[in-house]
TrEMBL record:
It comes from Pseudonocardia xishanensis. Keywords: Heme, Iron, Metal-binding, Monooxygenase, Oxidoreductase. Pfam families: p450 (PF00067). Belongs to the cytochrome P450 family. PROSITE patterns: CYTOCHROME_P450 (PS00086). The lineage of its organism: Bacteria, Bacillati, Actinomycetota, Actinomycetes, Pseudonocardiales. The keyword Transcription regulation does not apply. This is Cytochrome P450. InterPro entries: Cyt_P450 (IPR001128), Cyt_P450_B (IPR002397), Cyt_P450_CS (IPR017972), Cyt_P450_sf (IPR036396). It comes from the Bacteria.
Amino acid sequence: MTFDPLDPDYQIDPYPHFEALRAEPAVWVEPLNAWFVGRYRDVRRMAMDTKTFSNRRFSEISKGEFDYAPGVDQLVATDPPRHTRLRKLAAAAFRPGRVRAMEEALTEITHGYLDPLVERGGTFDFHQDLASRVPIHAITRMLGVPHEDGPTFRRWTADVLSAANRHTMAPAELARLRTSVDEVRAYFTDVVARKRRTPGDDMISDWMQAREGQDALTDDEVLALAILLLVGGDSTTAHLLSNTVATLWEHPEQLEEVRRDRSLIGRLIEESLRYEPPVQTVFWTTTRDVDLDGVTLKAEDAVIGVWSSANRDPEYFPEPDRFDIHRDSGGHQAFGFGPHFCLGAGLARSEARIVLEAVFDRLPNLKPAGGDPVEWVPSFWIRGPRALPVVA
């Protein structure tokens, strides 16, 4: 099997293709003008070696001309020491008290969406009616913006994340993407200006007030962080939930174990992150010529590390294509590794735990509605279903 991340078959099911990827130190993908790397040891080493594998072109490689904050230092697109500065200031909004308050709010939000589903019974779409709604509602609360704007946020997020596939998009799709990027930037430019005048009890206001000595975030840096939280916390968390449920249905014996013993939910989430990570890749640029087991990567080459391939590397995870909630899933790279480890990882884990516990409690007979197989979002960057029909 050849390795082509733009192949529709790959984007439906990338996992059979990873053996071909890991058979070579790096595979050149001409349409994307980038090297793809999938061995666990290499992806992890690159994540740690920011002097050689830079994140500075992350936005350029992943989004190209559809970058929502061009010319601004972004958390995902900087290297130490600029990244270290941004991360310290950004972490102010993830203080323990804020996270605890969000966990309480997440419980309320989750049950608010579950109530009508439980009462109505019958068939509904787990992904669209629950998994996608809880994260975006939580994000609107964290950012201090109207919950009614949530559906628009979901559209913006989906479009921004689709930019990695811009090379294969039709003109109408590119025009829609351009519109979404312009709209999300204009929206948060206005929000940041308003909160600069009148701060509130929200993350944007926290970022505006964050200080590291005499240093503070600029309005443009706050804008970039706000959009990053939206894009990074919406679709990805929704797909974590839906990927987990879809995978459990393929392993009914483990589903029954978790239903009987809720203490296994933490292990379930970690194994799901390893087995079906919502974010599949990371984007680097080499700063110098590098020899990778006989393959020469030139300075300024684009390098795409494939976390999902690393998570299925048999050199690190025995029988990696077997889903097993009892395995030690520690060391998976679903949230990245090293200096760029996801700042919101703890919140995402909490959100997944809260929603799954509530689903197991209130929908004990939940099962797939049957019919067509899961339709996956066409992307080599994001992994998740478009829909997940279920019967309560």
